[in-house]
Backbone:
């Protein structure tokens, strides 16, 4: 240990001083290490904070009690995880038990007092209609309930005629003193429970979901299916939990959740089920490798130039008896100092940023976050990652520095090692392997994404190894370029140790952006191409599931809230009496439907077609109306399937529970016109004439209200609430066609922005470093009369070379996994034989153009504008 | 002039050094034999490109000869291997170059202590020895200064201190006064002279005959061959001749 310290003492001192002497370069590296560390730290802390872990959730689940015991009306002996909310309990199916009584439970818990608690989701009756609300019934004044709610004004309920509501309901107009109508499920309570609001209180779980709480009976919740108790007594141990499990009770015990029993004492079968998410690990590994690669590439040039600026110092060290290992250590010590600083700074700033963002993020969440959670072990790993990336970035410059020609450096000459001849070959091999993996992944029937993603690693590494070859190719063709560009190209080629990582960093970034971009936009394309409208655009469908539905009232609500729209009452056959109607088609008519959007598979009409019916050509629509008018029923066939007019058999049947077989109630054969539906799977199966329905013995009833006349989004919301007010089971759906997800566009913009920042970062570093390296050359240029603007020109040209070559290479390499991933991503089996099946490929050309042309040019302009225009007059190395 | 009876600190026997290959090959040294003994300062003179620097890099083990033998304190440098040569530079010989001799990120004392620290000596011991060496060249007060806050002459003194710190007995100086004004240059030469008088062997490349006057012997190189070797007396007259000019 002390030998290790001795060996690193001098290198670390040199590195520290070097960082202080070259602050700009040091800051650059620190920033490049710190930024990813910061981002990961912030994300990690926020995720940990937003996630409410078992122990953190204990208070909000069971208040101040020792445990929450749940029993179902009919149950079996069960095995549960220490925290019953993790995974699923395993029931043994042999013996069905009746729910244990409170006495039984209490006696197993040393006679602990049990306080019953009921929770459910119900509906609060508002002025405009109904809104869903979380409901809690428990004696809030009981000390064991402490922590379930937080009283914010007024007082806690004292009788079962009183409740407290949260701010979300206050926003709906409820005030202290108001009566509150509450319904469970769709049972309209009809004024049975109309408790008075006596205060406002927030749930410790739900933040902005409507919430109401009161004592048992205040909201009319029942415990028919499940009974829950808070346990007021001593800590509930794991053996007690297991004994209760044998009675069929599920137990969330404070003591057990906070200090779970060792794995050996847990139920093996339950443990086996709650394994970690295995699919996540490779993805995480992939992201880690890619980020590591990116950081290494971005920081690499800075270390290369740092090592070059130190070359005289290193040569002097060798002259004083230093060994190659000691030279390497000096460069690596730079990584330790800068990487360490970056890691620490990144973690600290990340913590600060997370603290700042916590309330912002909480504002987007419906439930309360846990306490500010700093996962130190994770952060240690993240910091180590930062350090590691710096170390890797310094590795190549360190090795090169230890191999430099000391005599040449001492004599004031430069000595760059010649380019390797093997690396381009290896690069081509790796690139081919990457392409192979992509192709393999694309051809897999499922799960090919992983192969493609991992194939991206050798592809990018191979590309990096090919960068020198590309540089020399470009340099060879540079003869006709203007001076500044020619100089930039040749200089970039000559100083490969700093150019290659910079170009590679840009290329890796662009590759990632292009791959994700192609994947994203192809995914969108698939969504767009495979989108099938249920009804025509702009048409709204009102449906109600509770029978008998109050259609007149529902229609009134629509017309009241959205004056100016037309409402058509659609008739059809329902299965409310337990019977259902099926239409038998000729062989090969190929009709598959997932259920009609119009309220019933079998509609009834004496002429007019339902407004909004999609998939019928104009000519066919006319034929349909004609047929219905003539007393012929219309039966739909699959896409493009033409069947001559003739007869159809319609069967009314019912399912007999006793025999387990269908029982035919009526069977009629009708004159029918067959017409194909192009998008059958949300369409009706047939439209019968009223006469045909009568023949079946069925009275047509209203199955939906079809609203035309263009409901906008706001109207849709108010109509929705009004419908709920009439009937909680009623709802309206308005077809708006394919809506490109704004998320996808935002994701593309974020990608582009991120790519831009990284490209700017990579290019700026490389250019800035190249300029400080090029001082002697610039001095020579000045001596032969170059104008001061030349420096800017060289800077811009250099940025253009790095950014341009990098983004072209990156776009090429990134398009490989990008295109490949569209196979597993966007191939769909297709429904009902119709519809496109993919794969869909959509190359976001605009984004590509922005990346390959606009960004490099923009970067070059920025670099040119920000470079100092003064030419150096002396040409000395440090 | 020290007698050849005692064994030489530095000895080159029929040393050749060819740089490059084929048509681009340059014969920097062709069959040079040469020795330096404890207590003497040898000046190496010759026109530019005659092989003076090559001779010093070979003597210091920074480079190895194409043929012939270079030995320091009786150790064949080629046989010592790279690690052995590095150790020799830490313990047996020291370099002084024309300029930019010091590591800018280290203080004067730290620069002097460099060979000792590289050798794994404790920090305290290395610093103590470095201060002694700085005292010998008369700039103790500059110990904690960084090179950019020192004059050229001061920097060369520090470089000499570094070249002699510890028990090292061979000082190799390549035009140590080349970047200094006359007076400062004289000071530096005086220090080198004193170090040799105290028992070290010194080899100094110089352009100027006036500087050669400080040496016990002068070796003339031309096109990689020793063309002349003069004793101290001749050196004196040489110096007079230049002084008259
Ligand atoms: N690394 C090298 N590669 C090729 N030629 C070299 C190298 N080092 C020195 N030379 C050549 O060897 C000859 C002697 O050089 P040098 O020892 O530096 O001479 P001096 O120091 O006397 O000026 C010169 O012609 C020089 O160009
Ligand atoms: Mg020379």
Residues:
């Amino acid at each position: 240990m002390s030998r290790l310290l001795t060996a690193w003492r001098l290198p670390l001192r040199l590195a520290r001083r070097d960082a202080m002497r070259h602050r700009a370069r040091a800051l650059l590296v620190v920033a490049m290490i710190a930024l990813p560390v910061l981002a990961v730290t912030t994300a990690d802390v926020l995720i940990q904070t937003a996630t409410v872990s078992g122990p953190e959730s204990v208070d909000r689940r069971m208040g101040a009690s020792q445990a929450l015991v749940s029993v179902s009306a009919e149950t079996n002996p069960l095995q549960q995880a220490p925290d019953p909310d993790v995974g699923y309990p395993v029931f043994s199916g042999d013996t069905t038990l009746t729910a244990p009584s409170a006495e039984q439970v209490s006696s197993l818990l040393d006679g602990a007092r049990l306080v019953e608690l009921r929770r459910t989701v119900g509906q609060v009756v508002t002025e405009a209609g109904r809104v869903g609300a979380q409901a809690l019934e428990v004696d809030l004044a009981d000390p064991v309930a402490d922590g379930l709610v937080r009283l914010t004004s007024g007082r806690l309920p004292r009788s079962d005629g009183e409740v407290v509501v949260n701010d979300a309901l206050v926003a709906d107009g409820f005030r202290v003193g108001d009566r509150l109508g509450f319904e469970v499920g769709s049972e309209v309570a009809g004024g049975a429970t109309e408790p008075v609001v006596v205060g406002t209180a927030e749930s410790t779980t739900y933040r902005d979901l409507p919430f109401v709480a009161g004592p048992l009976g205040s909201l009319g919740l029942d415990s028919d299916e499940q009974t829950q108790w808070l346990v007021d007594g001593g800590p509930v141990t794991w053996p007690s939990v297991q004994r209760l499990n044998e009675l069929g009770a599920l137990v969330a015990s404070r003591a057990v959740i906070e200090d779970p029993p060792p794995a050996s004492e847990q139920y093996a079968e339950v443990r086996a089920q709650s394994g970690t998410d295995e699919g996540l690990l490779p993805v995480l590994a992939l992201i880690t490798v890619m980020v590591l690669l990116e950081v290494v590439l971005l920081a690499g040039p800075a270390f290369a130039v740092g090592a070059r600026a130190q070359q005289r110092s290193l040569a002097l060290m060798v002259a004083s008896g230093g060994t190659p290992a000691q030279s390497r250590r000096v460069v690596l010590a730079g990584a330790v100092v800068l990487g360490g600083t970056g890691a620490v700074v990144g973690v600290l700033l990340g913590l600060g940023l997370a603290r700042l963002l916590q309330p912002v993020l909480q504002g987007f969440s419906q439930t309360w976050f846990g306490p500010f959670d700093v996962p130190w072990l994770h952060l240690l790993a993240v910091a180590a990652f930062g350090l590691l990336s710096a170390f890797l970035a310094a590795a190549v410059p360190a090795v090169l520095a230890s191999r430099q020609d000391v005599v040449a450096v001492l004599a004031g000459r430069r000595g760059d090692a010649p380019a390797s001849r093997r690396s381009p070959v290896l690069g081509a091999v790796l690139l081919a392997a990457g392409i192979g993996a992509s192709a393999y992944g694309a051809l897999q029937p499922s799960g090919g994404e992983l192969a493609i993603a991992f194939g991206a690693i050798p592809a990018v590494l191979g590309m990096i190894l090919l960068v020198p070859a590309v540089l020399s190719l470009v340099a060879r063709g540079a003869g006709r370029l203007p001076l500044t560009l020619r100089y930039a190209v040749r200089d970039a080629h000559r100083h490969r140790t700093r150019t290659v990582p910079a170009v590679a960093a840009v290329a890796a970034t662009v590759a990632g952006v292009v791959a994700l971009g192609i994947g994203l936009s192809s995914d969108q394309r698939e969504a767009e191409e495979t989108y099938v409208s249920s009804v025509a655009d702009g048409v709204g469908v009102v449906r109600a599931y509770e029978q008998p539905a109050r259609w007149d009232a529902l229609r009134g609500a629509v017309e009241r809230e959205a004056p100016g729209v037309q409402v058509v009452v659609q008739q059809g056959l329902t299965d409310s009496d337990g019977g259902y109607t099926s239409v038998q088609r000729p062989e090969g008519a190929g009709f598959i439907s997932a259920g009609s959007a119009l309220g019933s598979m079998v509609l009834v009409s004496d002429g007019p077609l339902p407004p909004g019916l999609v998939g019928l050509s104009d000519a066919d629509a006319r034929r349909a109306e004609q047929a219905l008018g003539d007393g012929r029923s219309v039966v739909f066939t699959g896409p493009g399937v033409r069947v001559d007019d003739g007869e159809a058999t319609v069967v009314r049947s019912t399912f007999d529970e006793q025999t387990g077989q269908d029982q035919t109630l009526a069977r009629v054969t009708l004159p029918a016109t067959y017409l194909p539906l192009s998008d059958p799977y949300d369409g009706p199966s047939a439209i019968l004439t009223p006469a045909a329905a009568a023949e079946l013995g069925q009275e047509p009833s209203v199955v939906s209200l079809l609203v035309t006349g263009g409901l906008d989004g706001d109207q849709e919301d108010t109509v929705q609430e009004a419908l709920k007010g009439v009937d909680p089971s009623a709802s309206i759906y308005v077809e708006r066609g394919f809506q490109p997800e704004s998320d996808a566009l935002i994701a593309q913009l974020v990608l582009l922005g991120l790519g831009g920042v990284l490209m700017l970062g990579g290019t700026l570093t490389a250019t800035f470093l190249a300029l400080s390296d090029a001082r002697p050359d610039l001095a020579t240029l000045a001596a032969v009369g170059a104008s001061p603007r030349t420096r800017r020109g060289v800077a811009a040209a250099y940025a253009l070379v790095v950014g341009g070559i990098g983004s072209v290479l990156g776009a090429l390499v990134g398009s490989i996994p990008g295109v490949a991933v569209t196979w597993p991503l966007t191939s769909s089996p297709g429904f009902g034989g119709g519809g496109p099946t993919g794969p869909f490929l959509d190359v976001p050309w605009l984004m590509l153009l922005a990346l390959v042309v606009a960004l490099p040019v923009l970067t070059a302009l920025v670099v040119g504008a920000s470079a100092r225009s003064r030419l150096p007059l002396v040409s000395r190395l440090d | 002039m020290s007698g050849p009876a005692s064994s030489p600190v530095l000895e080159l026997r029929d040393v050749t050094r060819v740089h490059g290959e084929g048509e681009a090959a340059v014969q920097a040294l062709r069959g040079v034999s040469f020795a330096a003994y404890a207590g003497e300062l040898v000046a190496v003179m010759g026109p530019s490109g005659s092989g003076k620097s090559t001779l010093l890099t070979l003597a210091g083990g920074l480079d190895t000869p194409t043929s012939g033998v270079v030995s320091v304190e009786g150790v064949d440098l080629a046989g010592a291997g790279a690690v052995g040569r590095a150790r020799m530079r830490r313990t047996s010989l020291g370099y002084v170059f024309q300029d930019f001799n010091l590591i800018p990120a280290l203080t004067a004392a730290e620069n002097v202590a460099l060979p000792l620290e590289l050798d794994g000596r404790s920090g305290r011991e290395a610093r103590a020895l470095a201060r002694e060496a700085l005292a010998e060249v008369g700039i103790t007060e500059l110990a904690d200064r960084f090179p950019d806050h020192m004059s050229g002459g001061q920097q060369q003194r520090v470089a000499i201190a570094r070249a002699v710190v510890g028990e090292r007995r061979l000082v190799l100086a390549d035009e140590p006064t080349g970047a200094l004004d006359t007076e400062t240059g004289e000071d530096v030469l005086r220090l080198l002279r004193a170090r040799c008088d105290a028992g070290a062997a010194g080899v100094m490349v110089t352009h100027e005959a006036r500087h050669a006057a400080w040496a016990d012997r002068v070796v003339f190189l031309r096109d990689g061959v020793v063309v002349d070797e003069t004793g101290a007396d001749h050196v004196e007259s040489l110096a007079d001749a230049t002084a008259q000019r």
